[in-house]
Amino acid sequence: MDTHAVTDVLLLPRPDGAVANTVDFRGRPASRLGTGRWPAAVFVLGVEIAERFAYHGVSANLISYLTGPLGESTAGAAAAINAWSGVATMLPLLMACVADAWLGRYRTIVFASLLFVVSMGMLTVSALPPFHHDGCSLNSMSLACSPSPVQVAVFYVSLYLVALAEAGHKPCAQAFAADQFDQHDPKESVSRSSFFNWWYFGMCSGTALTTIVSSYIQDNIGWGLGFGIPCLVMVFALLAFLLGTRRYRYYTSTQSSPFARLTRAFVALIRGSKSNHCDSDHATDDAGHQEEVKGVLRLFPIWATCIIYAVIFSQSSTFFTKQAATLDRRIGSTLHVPPAALQTFISVTIMTFIPVYDRAFVPLARRFTRLSSGITMLQRIGTGLVLALVAMVVAALVEMKRLGVARDAGLVDQPKAALPMSLWWMVPQYVLFGLSDVFAMIGLQEFFYDQVPDALRSLGLAFFLSIFGVGHFFSSFIISAIDGATKKSGASWFSNNLNRAHLDYFYWLLAALCAAELVAFLIVSRVYVYKKRAPHDNGAVM
């Protein structure tokens, strides 16, 4: 819908029962009863679950593919995965601007879904036999079986197309689903507050399913089929999303794109600092722009004090998976649990605890705090950071135990041998990751959606994602730096033989950094003033 059409719609008298500043798929004022709310949001949730299935069908077990069929080193593979994840979580800033300036959220979701189908199809093709040298199987783990240059090229092009598709989905799908609830309507406002919890519940259900199904197929049947199934799931999800077109509310605005507004705001802030002489119209505009940029800048301390949390978050799909591969993963006499499948405990924990948080913890906390949300957003985030710190301490202790078992069993120089240590030793750190996500991850999503200036709200979730983009890049940097430094002293902390590596040192380092970050977070959160407060929420410090 072009700008003139939007303006015409906004100038028309709004019929009773219509939702302000929204239209239906025909461009008419959106009916409150006929559009939006949960009946519309579930279609968006469906395509998001499928997107999680597709994305984690690649990312969850990616380190096994890079160190197996592609023959990369453990440190190199971890750094490559973090760099790719960083791109996937930084690009949403750009894609959010593209969506707001040109495509709109609905079209961006459709195009991103199509790109997912294409890129996942290319990944599937890259894992098929014609791309392998003679004698190499699809699930070969032999380092001597080197990949062909064509296979590597097609794989990495496909992988970064997946990142681009992810970047289109991330800022638009959740914001588009949240748009289905009118924040000015008391009933719909309550539903929207609960929506963020259930949105993450749906995302985790898709993640849990693909972690179990795809990782098992990839490890035991073949990588081609393991990449192909998420591709098919994405096809059907896109068709379902299109079926909801008539139900959606489409947010309309005559304002320029958030990126353009931010640019003008920074210019206005600089101009205002140099001169106080201007006409009244420019003064009014500049004052508004300055307030917007100040509204964004005041979020930076919170953003900066969550970077290490993002670094910790990235370990579950890299080094944790490599550790799990060395353990006794038998359940019964026949079933071998794929290493990446342990990540399911994160999703299952989230899916189990979100209803408890939403239906039990919040009402109980509300009795003591008199806050409608039970605890404030920053209190929720801070609790998640504490749990992340505990998770890294537990991970370090478990890794020390694993190394001790390898020494006692005389298996230090047999990296492919399963250690006499059960996979269940690693479950607590995954569960703690899941609990941390319920507090910090969801809290950050709600915080950056709610606290950005209203005119820039569509960029709020992109700001949230950029935390993890920077975190992934920083993780890639420190892994490469530590690997290079420790190799010079004799043995890398990230040796390909994990029985001679020192991941425990790395985890202790992350725990120390997280403790320092937590102190900084507590300081900045104590002085943070919320943009909006309900009357009964006044006085909340965090």
Automatic annotation (TrEMBL):
It is a multi-pass membrane protein. GO terms for molecular function: dipeptide transmembrane transporter activity; low-affinity nitrate transmembrane transporter activity; tripeptide transmembrane transporter activity. The chain crosses the membrane at residues 75-97, 109-128, 148-165, 198-217, 223-243, 299-320, 340-357, 378-398, 430-449, 461-485, 505-524. One of its GO terms (cellular component) is plant-type vacuole membrane. The keyword Signal does not apply. It comes from the Eukaryota. It is found in: Membrane. Signal peptide: none annotated. This is Major facilitator superfamily (MFS) profile domain-containing protein. It comes from Eragrostis curvula. The lineage of its organism: Eukaryota, Viridiplantae, Streptophyta, Embryophyta, Tracheophyta.
